[in-house]
Queue: 4 jobs
Job 1
Amino acid sequence: FLLTAIMFAQVYGDNGKMKEYHYSGPVEHRFSPYSFNGGTVLAVAGEDFAIVASDTRLSEGYSIHSRDSPKCYKLTNTTVIGCSGFHGDCLTLTKIIDARLKMYKHSNNKSMTSGAIAAMLSTILYGRRFFPYYVYNIIGGLDEEGKGAVYSFDPVGSYQRDTYKAGGSASAMLQPLLDNQIGFKNMEGVQHLPLNQEKAVQLVKDVFISAAERDVYTGDALRICIVTKEGIKEETVPLRKD
Amino acid sequence: MALSNVVETPASGFNFENVSRNVALEGLLEGGHTKAPKPMKTGTTIAGVVCKDGVVLGADTRATSGEVVADKMCAKIHYISPNMYCCGAGTAADTEKTTDLLSSNLTIFSMNSGRNPRVVMAVNILQDMLFRYRGQIGASLILGGVDCTGNHLYTVGPYGSIDNVPYLAMGSGDLAALGILEDRFKPNMELEEAKELVRDAIHSGIMSDLGSGNNIDICVITKQGVDYIRPYQESEYKDKRQRRYKYRPGTTSILTEKIVPLELEVVQETVQRMDTA
């Protein structure tokens, strides 16, 4: 009885007449400065390496703009950034980061470290707090001691250092799988083996195959950037194109 | 013999009983910070072509729920009658139920009249129903069939519009498929050529449209019978993983265990010999 009373009150207003539920006046259509171009990025940190991987599909709505638009950008010899979200903002943001890296190099006579880049990116993003860059960033690289480092960001600059992180359209599908396979969460009596490079690369490839199966915005090809003290190695693996 | 009223028409005027209920429910849901469940759409590519000997229908097999693929092998070509099949695009539940309803009604009609239903009758029933619901039933259908008057291909839109044309494509991938059809369609094609054309049209929808994907189903309807080929072509992308992800028994932790014994008593015992010769 209470439910019917609530429903009655919500449908019929105070004066007993039925409430208007259809707006029947002029509607203002606003121009949206953002658009969602899809894509998934993933970063994993190991003992002496870091992996940043992304798919290469650029989409909008139900169409594909490009099948070959990777989302990992090389910043320095020891750092790679993955950006997904609104492609326009991704391009501008990477340009700004490149310029700031150059300025730092000229002023301080050395390259920026991964931690420093992460801190700088946080301030750049927060500088646009009230008209954000619609970009989900993940930085992967080596820190000063040569250990793998992953920094994950939200669109307005909140960041933290992680061991592994997935971002972008299929992040909700990938993150639980990584939590289980790399973080050994929800498992009993399993040996916590440290992640070696070969196993990490295999895991990243498998995880993207799964993402491409179930997420329409992920697919076409997978670009993997492996960061070690020798440098940055790139690998491309085909994914589903449908 | 008088034909019984196969499709019952409701009371006069439009029935808006559920609208006020839906509004109230939405209000309740918003208050509880939960969202109403999103219906599963098929985000599809479907196509049909009339050829010399019959009608060829084709469809992809992906069903999406927003941006997630909900079903990788869903059947979008629905059975209507022995001589008619219908491809459905739009909200999955709507296409399923509408075609089921149509099929049941036509079966009753066949039994009553002793005749195979004609395609125009099916189209008219669909149009009546979809128009009555003013587009609230989100079903875009391609109906193809062969009857005593010839080979027919019709499309019925969600608001109740129909179109009778020799080749068609519907769904989110319809423009991609239509490009192929416009380029290579010829009247009175051979069956094999028509099958290839429909396969190519669906394939282009699968590659260009994010809402379509996976395998291709084809249904060929001729005077002799129906050939429902599912799948006509499997997706060439095999998901081969590099590592195996098996969990040893005992990996999932058991927090509590409760055993409730069931009190059973034997009431009756019968022995039945099985013939195992």
Job 2
Amino acid sequence: MASEDEVSLLVVVVDVNPIWWGQQAQREPEFTLSKCLDSVMVMGNSHLVMNRTNKLAIIASHCQESHFLYPSKHWKAGDAAGDDAVSSSRDGKYEVLAVTNDQISEEVRNLMARTEVKGHQTDTLLAGSLAKALCSGQEMKSRILVIKAAEDCALQYMNFMNVIFAAQKNSIVIDACVLATDSGLLQQACDITGGLYLKIPQKSALAQYLLWVFLPDANQRSQLVLPPPVHVDYRAACFCHRNLIEIGYVCSVCLSIFCNFSPICTTCETAFKIPLPQMVKPKKKKLKPAT
Amino acid sequence: MAASSEEVLLVVKKVRQKKQDGTLYLMAERIAWGPEGKDRFTVSHLYADIRCQKISPDGKAKIQLQLVLHTGESTTFHFANENSALRDRDAAKDLLQQLLPKFKKKANKELEEKNRMLQEDPVLFQLYKDLVVSQVISAEEFWANRLSMNSVNHSTSNNKQEVGISAAFLADIRPQTDGCNGLRYNLTSDIIESIFRTYPAVKQKYAENVPHNLTEKEFWTRFFQSHYFHRDRISTGLQDLFSECAKQDEKGLKSMVGQGVKNPLVDLQSLEDKALDEVNLAGTDTIPLYKTRVFGYGTAATPSTSNSNRTVKENSNSAIIKRFNHHSAMVLAAGLRKQDPLNDQASETSSTDGNSRDSDLFQPPIKKVKLQEAIEYEDLQQEDGLKTVSLNLKKSDRYSHGPVPIQTQHYTTSQDIINSVILVQHEMANYKPCLTQVMSSTMASSAIVALSPGGVLMQAGTQQAINRGYLSLSLHPKMVPSEVQSELKHLYTAAGELLRHFWSCFPVNTPFLEEKVVKMRSNLERFQLTKLHPFQEKVQRQYFSTNLTGHLEEMLQTAYNKFHAWQTRRMMRKT
């Protein structure tokens, strides 16, 4: 067992993109956002129960903001609607868990209620949520679990990579549980920080996957038989065509990647000299002075 | 006889070797002995071949000198001159002592180098064992490339830091009581080296006396017993081995004080330490440092207040202080001696001359530097400013997505978006966690099946890895033990080395490369036969049927194919 004093923080970043979840509700009515949040709550409770010193944080990653569902700033004891408060504490649950669950559900209701529809903001702000998660786990041993629903947003690439390297520097492990499409960025994140990446085949069994694979922390994983690491495709895409290439040309000034050589970099307009093979100059014959 | 260009350093007559009389000659690069009356040398050894020399102990009747070579053989010379045998032998020994170290290093260096490399790099050592010891390739081939690579590295590693001397090294030799009124001193070679580096006088005494007059043990016993080592060094005039050392130390201290401090901004004269009852006869005039008595810096004692006025206690106190100062100065000097031979010469002109401070024209350069440092601040100076080229990005939006391929975006109409959002909001408005019905048991058990070994999620990794030959993924710790893994790694290293030699021969331009290619091919075959096949058989017999060596065999086969192609082309060219 870990020492009694060690505080271990689990930050769960849940992708609550309302557009994706709305579409998901139409595709598969048996697995909706509520079920997903229930599963996350089960895992959060389990984590808190594993060890007295364990801590939990849950961040909802929305299109408009990244919001801490737990711990919440606004929750005050006794503020919740009368019936709910009574019912949640009536079943004799460990008080901490009851409070946690109440806070989470309250915050998520408020978050969804204040969603505004905006056409151009349809991507999940995952990089921002990860950054918040990193900041919250500064003073203690922490790890991040990302539950991803919607697709990757390529525009967040730079921020994402910075977050990944920051996590690696601070020895914070990033795990990923992907519900739908594979995410190259998260695969890289897990590979670099030493976490687990898993794309689950059945969304309805999310709770089981979370408890089996993602509940044990990094120290215990070496003793368990867990899904093996995925082969990560680290190939970069060229800046000109955005094709994946294995061998390319990199501008030494702006570091942009190209698939073909061109004498001028199109990004920073630096000119490059091509080293030509040595030309043998024909020797000039000395002109004999005409006599 | 000796070559005409050889310089003869010492000739000793009446030296017997193997019961024959003869003469011993010491030349510039070798030592030789010829029997009496004959013209040629029967015994000749280069200094480079001699590992060490030994002499017979003093008490023995026969005075001998033995030379031990690197190969292990030894030659003994018996000095038989009735009068001067001992002197002769000692003269020969001293000369050899001076000459041998010069030649020693050259011969051994290569071997030492090789040994060092093998010891430092366990992978290299393993490779050596696998290839050379099992005679797959010869030792010269193995070392052919490596020595040149590493000689560059070695030269840079020579600039290691020298270990300094602890100032407390003498105090650290704490004597233990012997039980019966005696003291045991434990001397390690480190302490001895510190003593020699700090007090070269003692080193000289040691070289003079050991091993002729005294054994090492006796020398050190005398050292510790002598008043030189004792706290209160009152020169009693006893015929002590070390009384000369004491005098030398005093001389050394005087000269050090005479040199003074090289930093012109430090004025030691201003530090005065006067006892209340001492009359300051000199007033406030500064006294040139070399006239001050050596009882402490800056005291105002003039030559007239001599020993007679001081009490015995003052004398011993000042003696201790003097010894402390001397000891510290010697420790510092020993540390700086090797590092600063150049610096000393540069600054010598400045401060040894006691009158230099008076002449304004002769400003010591060090003083200038110190003054400059004190006046100027680097960051307040004008910025020189390196001319930098600013980055001029025309298409900076490329960085927003970075080197990420375009992904197919699902097109969603705005109506879709609105509908989805409303649906979710509706759903979550009445959200209440229902944790007892998160999933059904069938779902849970199917998930568990997928996660168990052999399940859907667990298989992809191992098969993929085996196919690509990735060791770390395919060799699940429970399936293949670590010895097999490490043996496989060694095989890979050895095969890699051989293949590197093989492939570097192409294109085959010279006859040397042709020979090498043929040799390497036979080496590869031998490697495959002696190492690879037995390993594969062992693995198949004992563990499982997976093919661990498939990739290795593939690499070897490619090499064989290349060789075959090259050979047929050569045949066709010849015919």
Job 3
Amino acid sequence: MPLELFLDLYSPPCRAIYIFAKKNGIPFEFRPVVLGRGEHLKPEFLKVNPLGKVPALRDGDFLLAESVAILLYLSRKYQTAPYWYPPDLQACARVDEYLAWQHTAIQLPATNVYLCKSLLPHFSGQPVDTVRLDRLLGKLKPALQHLDQEVLAAKPFLATEQVSLADLMAFTELMQPTAVGCDLFRDWPRLAAWRARVEAALGPELVQDAHKLVLQPRDPRDAQQDPRLAQELVHRLQERLS
Amino acid sequence: MWPPPPAPEPGSSPLSTESPENSCCCENSGLPGLMTTPSETRSSRMRVLGLGWRGPTGTEPGPGAQAAYRLRFRTCWLWLVGVPDTCLSMGLELYLDLLSASCRAVYIFARKNNIPFDFQFVDLLKGHHHSKEYIKINPLKKVPSLKDGKFVLSESVAILFYLCRKYSTPSHWYPPDLHTRARVDEFMAWQHTAIQMPMSRILWIKMLIPMITGEEVPDEKVEQMLAEVKNSMQLFEEKFLQDKMFISGDHISLADVVALVEMMQPMGGNYDVFLNSSKIAEWRMRVELAIGPSLFGEAHDRLMRLAEWDSSTLDPMVKERICELLQKFK
């Protein structure tokens, strides 16, 4: 059985894994999991990942969740180029440091901005709550400031002198709100320059391919396909974003 | 340094009779002629050194720690009088407050593996993580931090991996096998939002917010938080632990240490998350035993004594921020 990656390219960590696998020529079967249809919560998928989240990996009998763990697994199994996860003790530590920090400092608040700007209006049919959006953007600001003013002041990429798993994860996360009209790079020049460097390092075509879905405006008719699901999603989102 | 060197000969050093409670120990060195550094620089250096350090539990350190403290100051005294930094080897420094679960994980791991380090106490209850001196170490104002010569590292997961690698600790802590290692990585990634955050919130909601503001958090919010924790514990049991002895299999790893110290956090507020599952309770006992009950107990002492803290000493600005936090829950 070939390697299977369970992904929805609407999700930033899924895009990171997709880009990493493609960039490194890692053969895999793409198993789509459409979050918008609640497929991540269905029994079939829960057998693969009981946590009910994408991305997930299946390698023969071996199941693995969590994007950071999956990226490290792929880099080790397929012995990808060392710059992704450097062998040097301190360089590696810098990548680990970012990958740990980003869960709560970047991923959580950036996702909330995206949910407020795109998903909630899509499923509720209501316009964007701009007061709430501003508050959520405010929560992301300290992290962006830290990256722009402190981290990138000293080097061209987030962990070392070359692109690494840290940049890959950060890139797809920061593209999430940006792709739906909240340009996170606008106020941060070093971050904007870093974005261009990362895109060049990953390959513009591959980046475009991975982001095609999230860059497209959502079709309002999709939300009406399952009104009960839409209602439940709206309720969960309201709770999460309050 | 840890483990501490043998106690010095009596009278062999001006600092050998130092008592840890003395917050200006270097002024009593008895060598006034050598104090050539301007007093302002000297006092700021004294603050950075954490003078008045009361050891990991916030109370008087034991004899081993006191000896380590004396060695540190013998070395640091030279810095105080103006000997350049490059002449001193400060060794590995860990900036910690054992009230924090992530700090306990790092502390337990380093002690268990006899990794020598200087314990730099950053008192969260006194807001020392916001001090100018600490911001220079970690601008994100969080603990733990590691300083190894000029290299500074934050994030407990990164610090644990660094220590494993640098000190070549036994392989079961971070197993080399591809699949087993991935199991550890998987837990270490998941726990940030699924365990650490909710467990810490319980302590805030059940203990710190009522203690500091004098007000209770609304029942509805408390129930919501507790339900989230219950759900996480269920996922932990069903997915990460299953029927194994430890998360990665038959041996304790970094994942178990991180998991347990975080699940202990609500205990500071008298909330026991282990009550609902005998499987998890048994796993807890195995982990404590593997770590060593005395080390485990020592690491958790400050947390377990949190109820004794006099919150009226809290900085008013910090108190205001916490009151604002309470409003969010209403």
Job 4
Amino acid sequence: MAAMAVALRGLGGRFRWRTQAVVGGVRGAARAGQRDYDLLVVGGGSGGLACAKEAAQLGRKVAVVDYVEPSPQGTRWGLGGTCVNVGCIPKKLMHQAALLGGLIQDAPNYGWEVAQPVPHDWRKMAEAVQNHVKSLNWGHRVQLQDRKVKYFNIKASFVDEHTVCGVAKGGKEILLSADHIIIATGGRPRYPTHIEGALEYGITSDDIFWLKESPGKTWHPTDVALECAGFLTGIGLDTTIMMRSIPLRGFDQQMSSMVIEHMASHGTRFLRGCAPSRVRRLPVGQLQVTWEDRTTGKEDTGTFDTVLWAIGRVPDTRSLNLEKAGVDTSPDTQKILVDSREATSVPHIYAVGDVVEGRPELTPTAIMAGRLLVQRLFGGSSDLMDYDNVPTTVFTPLEYGCVGLSEEEAVARHGQEHVEVYHAHYKPLEFTVAGRDASQCYVKMVCLREPPQLVLGLHFLGPNAGEVTQGFALGIKCGASYAQVMRTVGIHPTCSEEVVKLRISKRSG
Amino acid sequence: MERSPPQSPGPGKAGDAPNRRSGHVRGARVLSPPGRRARLSSPGPSRSSEAREELRSRLLGLIERSRVVIFSKSYCPHSTRVKELFSSLGVECNVLELDQVDDGARVQEVLSEITNQKTVPNIFVNKVHVGGCDQTFQAYQSGLLQKLLQEDSAYDYDLIIIGGGSGGLSCAKEAAILGKKVMVLDFVVPSPQGTSWGLGGTCVNVGCIPKKLMHQAALLGQALCDSRKFGWEYNQQVRHNWETMTKAIQNHISSLNWGYRLSLREKAVAYVNSYGEFVEHHKIKATNKKGQETYYTAAQFVIATGERPRYLGIQGDKEYCITSDDLFSLPYCPGKTLVVGASYVALECAGFLAGFGLDVTVMVRSILLRGFDQEMAEKVGSYMEQHGVKFLRKFIPVMVQQLEKGSPGKLKVLAKSTEGTETIEGVYNTVLLAIGRDSCTRKIGLEKIGVKINEKSGKIPVNDVEQTNVPYVYAVGDILEDKPELTPVAIQSGKLLARRLFGASLEKCDYINVPTTVFTPLEYGCCGLSEEKAIEVYKKENLEIYHTLFWPLEWTVAGRENNTCYAKIICNKFDRDRVIGFHILGPNAGEVTQGFAAAMKCGLTKQLLDDTIGIHPTCGEVFTTLEITKSSGLDITQKGCG
């Protein structure tokens, strides 16, 4: 019975596809009837899979092609893209491992008789995390199968605007054609180009979660990613971060510096205003890093087990042969240019996710943008993706959640005299008995000064920042005013109640 | 919590039409130019003597609270002369124009009973009846009027607050900030087991604070289990030490007690550690530990005495059982424990005790978490049951006997079925009663000044500005009838009350959509209506309920159960799918719920939930992707991986 139903659904889908080909075939109507798929999705990450599943649900014939080019260190993974394999999921799990380390230290204060210090076994954690990721890979494949989405593990490049050529692992080539194509190939970590030994000896976030052995003493040249350094410190590793300029570019700078302050006070070392110049392998196997202090001009060296580059990401567009299809990219970033409907310079080719110019590089935005796109393509919808007020959380040891404008951005847009910032330091109840330092637990709300004081941005530094921020993101989406937030009764005792207790403005001092 | 009417008054409306129907007279000395009008009207049509008595006490209240009251008629030239006289003296007056209020004639009648004067104007200065126009001018010429006016500080204090808990303290501090002379009376009557504590009330001493800390201790036990899966290595069986934990928690509480005293001192609020009791109008007797009595007077009073745990009234309960008043400072581990009751206090305590590895049984008379969404309540219960808490449903204890003394000793509990004649017996080290709480309103002399209480519940009915039937007496916190018993609510209402009394504010406390969280092992956060209440108010066919089970990412690697955490929203189909109920069962439920509560204040709809981008990977994001309706009957279990 079930098989029957599926078969019928498949037929129905094809039938619809045929009628559409006749009515809507603008270019090469004759060929359109012969195209393999209604929709071809290039890239099986969060955005691509969301597109594929949504289109299949709307009865379309869909294929997904996905291929993971091994990292320079040879790391590779399964279906699901960055988030599942080398991003949010393993990161949050390792962050959780580090948080548990903190809780183990708290435990004796709460009466648990556990002898300190408790050692951490990287292999055990990594294996558990990797097993979970693999189960997710498998889950994604099952989901595609359930929805009759054809999945090809091939490396794709455009042949023309409706055709993609895929190369499988064995070198076998296959041609796939489709009426609509969505590019969702995401991005990969950037390696520095002018530093000797960087590519040879350095690893990136593509590798760290898949290491079988502990990375040991690690060195992170980074301006963007503090999370890895945070959890590595948290599981007891000696970790150094080297920053050229400001941390967490694009985020509120006061919050960012407090994140750094907290990490520094919890054992992560920081070298600021320094630029690495070369990496060398010592005979004993360790890596020697040489850097230049940009203020003094002096050179210095250090010895580490692991060098983790986290200097940004580049879009995975180069091997796609986009010029064959006529898809325009930004000359600066190589990212794909799209309009508000996610359409590229070729009307039936679209792009979603991290590969797109000017979009937040976040899993949930890619998913939502992908689903809305497919609903417009096949579901008769006209809803556009709204990229404003996207909430996010940085899972540093002290988590940082935010939504809306940073203080700088609010001032830039509205002028200092029109912005009121309410803020407070607070101490989470759980910190008291644990004897933890709460100097960086801080919340601030950026509002317009004129009544009713519309909330422009919320910034929260503290435990469970992601959970705290989510609901308030809705409030801001609803156009919440400061007064409305203040009229909300707190939940006692939580950290999030601090947000509805914000009474002191920065202006008042 | 779900008792309030569903529709919110809407922003901006709070200050319009201040209390015209409620009979409240606004703080007379605030912003009132000479000749300012007081409003006074009765709440309803004549209920003869009762209504008359109420009017009388309200008039007396007005007279007592005002420096000058002029009962006047707007067209009366004599009245106008008197008003001009006070105006020329620069004295603010409360003026009641009897021709402009609904029940002016009755006011005049009652006034003539009080003063034997039938005409207007009728003038009171500092509670002294001066008389009419002529008498007032005579008094002015003789200097008596000026002398009367100088006796301004007729009372020791502007405000006395009975009860130094969350509500009382917030009200006291705010009134002091507004420049008033304030006293706080706080006295903890020891529990039957002899437990007592310091300043700060239930929340700080025997409520939210120690509860959440013990809950955290239990969560840490879970975290220790999880941590091995995350690579942390230790072999030994980790034991929990009750004394270490309790000492640490009590130390924290002491520091909070001390902090409260300090902050009262900083704000020049007089704090007296004595039991307060009304003896006559505007006068209170304060009895300290040694039995010494002192009397204080004040223009206005706030009752914020809160509640204390209820006892069963069976043999052995007060001698051998403990309550939440005793548990948090218990000097020894309670051991095998019977928790009686199914309130959130009962389930929270049972939850953390089981988390420490103790053998815990909960005896439930009927349903879990009365007043909360019952689907959620049952899920809370079944999670506890899966984690080792035993439940005895439909039983009530009838006798508690001591078998052995000790720390802890051994108690035998006899219980009977609520449905049949079956009885059971059990032996426990500790029996914790958590069957409800009683308001501390019966022994504070309220009857002496005529403050009404609900005789059955002991709660104090108040109007929408927290005023009791005696106009100069207000009440905040857990003793209020039909209001949520929550610290933040008490704090908010205490603070707003002080601002209205002394700060020219009109803002009322908004009791709609108050969020709360139950800190059971699996936390339960909610805001708005329960499913039952929503069906009752809006009818089932007008609702759409979206729900899903979810698996927190942190639970996956830890090997904790799937299909346990649950999220549910209740939407009103005929109001653009507005969210009228929000429920989450999962880790950090409190942290998740708070922001959604703020969003509900701003008119959250399902569409907005759908349009909002999730924060990945969190539990809160589950609400941005709710697709399955309850009415569809579709399966919500998570298969394999998300």
